[in-house]
Amino acid sequence: MKQTIDYLAEILYASAFLVCWAGTAGLLWVTVGVATATSQDVWRFFMEFLRSTWGIVLLDVMALLLFLIGVYFLAQFLQARRRWKRIQHDSPRGPVEISLFAIRSYIERILAYEFGLQRYRVALENTSNGLYVFIRAELPVGRNVLNTAERIQQTVEESVEDRVGVKVHRVQVIAAGIASERGEERPLFRSEGEIE
Predict the structure, then answer these.
(1) Cβ(119)–Cβ(179) under 8 Å?
(2) Which of 5, 106, 120, 194 could form a disulfide with 137 if both were Cys (CB 3.0 to 4.6 A apart)?
């Protein structure tokens, strides 16, 4: 179910990006058309406003906003695509592929259940030296932050290498805050934008 939702989100991001940039191109085309249109045009009254300085500025501002929104959705689309990248291992019986999304989900389970973290974000990058793991989290109050961060690094590296079979090059942990320990339920997966 989650994979279907992720694929749907990816399609919506790509569609929104294309619509925004098409709108940008359309508005810029209208701006050029307004600058060169004759006063006999069917849209004469509309064009008269657009020929004014304020009309041109309004169209340019709208085009800029659509362009920036398009850039945002393009970034979201690329981020969604990156989640589905795979690490491939060749075995005698054929290739084995492990998605970065699956590894990230596994690391999130470790953070939630072994360390009791409630707010975190995990990003992965597959490099030539191995997997680069970036963790940004709120660490629990009452524990030594440096010791906890080092334990997270060691546990994540050992677990991913032993249980998943993927070499870990580096685990970077950023303590984004200190959270009070509460006994509430923690969801396994967090959205990318949940932690500032």
Answers:
(1) yes
(2) 120
User: Quick one: 91 and 130 in the same domain?
Assistant: yes
Q: Is residue 189 part of a domain?
A: no
Instruction: Give yes or no for residue 192 having a pLDDT over 80.
Output: no
With beta carbons less than 8 A apart as the criterion, state whether 99 and 131 touch.
no
For 91-120, how does the pLDDT look when each residue is reduced to its tens digit (9 = 90+)?
A: 788 887 788 888 888 999 999 888 888 888
Which amino acid does the sequence have at 175?
Answer: A
Q: Measured between alpha carbons, how far is 158 from 154 in angstroms, rounded to an integer?
A: 6
Pairing of strands 94-99, 86-91: antiparallel
> How many domains does one find in the chain?
2
Both 67 and 126 in a single domain? Answer: no
Quote the CA–CA distance of 112 and 49 in Å, as a whole number.
58
Q: Are residues 93 and 170 in the same domain?
A: yes
Give the chain's mean pLDDT.
76
Q: Please provide residue 173's backbone torsions phi and psi, each rounded to the nearest 5 degrees.
A: -120, 130
Q: How do strand 168-179 and strand 130-140 relate by DSSP bridges?
A: parallel
pLDDT of 189:
45
